[in-house]
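Reply to dn_fold:

You asked what the input looked like. This is it:
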Amino acid sequence: MLAALASSGVLAAAGCSGDGDGGTSTGGGDGDGDGDGDGGMETTEMETPATEGPTPTPVPEEAQDPEFNWAFKSDWNPVEANLNPEAASANNPWFIQNIWGAMGVQTNLRGEPIYLNAESFEVADDNKSATMTYREGLEWWDGTPLRGKDIVASNKIFNFQTYYQEESPDQPAEIVSDDPPTIRFNYNCAQNPTLALLNQRFGNSWPQWEWYEPWLNEYRNASSESEINSVTEEFQQAEITMQDVVDNEYGIGLWKPSDWNTQKLVHEKWEGHRWSDRTNLEKFTIDLLESNQKLTQAVSNGRVDAGSVGQISGTGISNDAYEVVHKVPTGAQIGLKLNKANKHLNRPRVRRALAYAINHDEILQALKSGIGVNATSPGTQNMATTQIENNFLSESVRNNMINYGQGAQLDEATTMMEDAGYSKQGGNWVGPDGDTIELTHITPSWNKYKFISNYLSDKLGDFGIQTEVQPLSYSGFQNIWQNSFEYDMATWFQQGLHPALWYGLGRNGKGWQELNGWGLSMLANPDRDVGCDPVEREIQEGKKRDDRLNQVIRPEYPGQVGTETLDLDNVGNVKTLKPFVLNQQMRQATSKERLVELTKEFAWYANWAVPNLELFDEVFTNFGKTDAFQFPDRSQRVYYHRAPWLWMKEGRVNGRAE
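and this is what came back:
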């Protein structure tokens, strides 16, 4: 079934979003803010799925350079790092445990599974369970066989922290076998096979069971939610140091850490790994470069062998030793999230005016010329990337939607403001209540986010809407974004390569929520069993809007795509969007036709009402020394945007012979 869905275009590549390749495990998305660009180097065409199958690359017997150095701009310090995956103070690059751990399966840009430590992922015919079978003979570095309990351990911790119980109420898992390790996911309701793959929760198991076991026992002995919360607080203070990783041999990957200091983390190839003969490299060093200046110097003098082009954005570096080796869209979109608790932004004509006033063509040019960042246009204003549009919205639907344009349409924007009762006074728009529009605009201090926020502040100021940009640390941003909601606009990303994830409604221990796409905060009682029939979840009797963000919960909109009027009294066919119902239907849909139908409703409402604003779709690019190293070519698997880390994990980079 997965193969059939891949060929039909339903199966989408899994990916995380963020900013640059400098992500941290606690960061929102995966970035330190350096974005992506070409760094002054000549770029190739965007990587697209090749039609032919994988072509094996011969491994040279000897490498002229057996050590591979990856440039990574980060102030992360492995000497002081706490590698506990759940540590409250953790600030670890996301890829660290990825390289060491027992990741089962990922997906490539064709939507095909990339089997790493797993050898199969099969969805049952009734779509109510999926079974992931791992390869035989897998061992941790200490010689302990990989077991089913290793795979489920961290997920059990997550369940206690999220649901206050050991098993997920929606997706309980069972260990079917230890030889080979086999896990079965049992779904309460039939699940779309694509989501079964994208949502499998055991993507990376690390460290092994013995580290988690005493903590699981403490959770099991806790008799109340408050006691579970107390265990969580203690658990998040537990430490795993780099020395612990080495002494206890916490890992199963091809590369074992052997040396580290404040400026580098050195790995040596573990000869006991089944992929050790794939590569002639002996060492894999991550050069930790804490500033743009140090990164620029390292690239200029050719000291590093590969890295993220985005991390040298804006430097204008040109070094003939490097070429672009990978360039892909990320499946993520950067946008302006609007808080409808602000009375100006609660007016749909004002939101439409913003959509007309934003010049997407100029945004792409500004990113490129200002900080060297490559990006692509988001396409139609419907809160979806072009990938979602191309896969799940027909051309006729897209063509019939309201065209806010890629360039600014200031006449249309002005008309919208005037129709909303605003007038220009002293160059600023003054509302029907006599006050000017002054908006608080929060953004993470990541380079790309901060740059585009300041750029838009200037442009909106020219139009007559004043904004105050507040760059914040990640923790400071998240505190406002998820807790206080004291903002008017926020620059943030949204991710997902399946419409049920893109127009998603997430669940945590407190309620159903969605903060990215719709701007809804806590809405529903998670303890209410709604069964498997797509029904509207109970929120509160008569509740019309979200308390904290003033977002309409069940908004009305024209049934005919392309109807521009905002006066629904004059529209014959009026629909009510029930996001909980539609999302539940998406999660259970087993045909692409049904997904297309459901996606249209979300996308059309977003186009008509403009609950948030699209800015640009992300692109990630990586460079490497192609004269010294062999990288996977286009005829091999087309990986998702984290490609280089998977290349190293799989031993697919080789040093060229003399």
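The chain has a mean pLDDT of 81.
Hope that clears it up.
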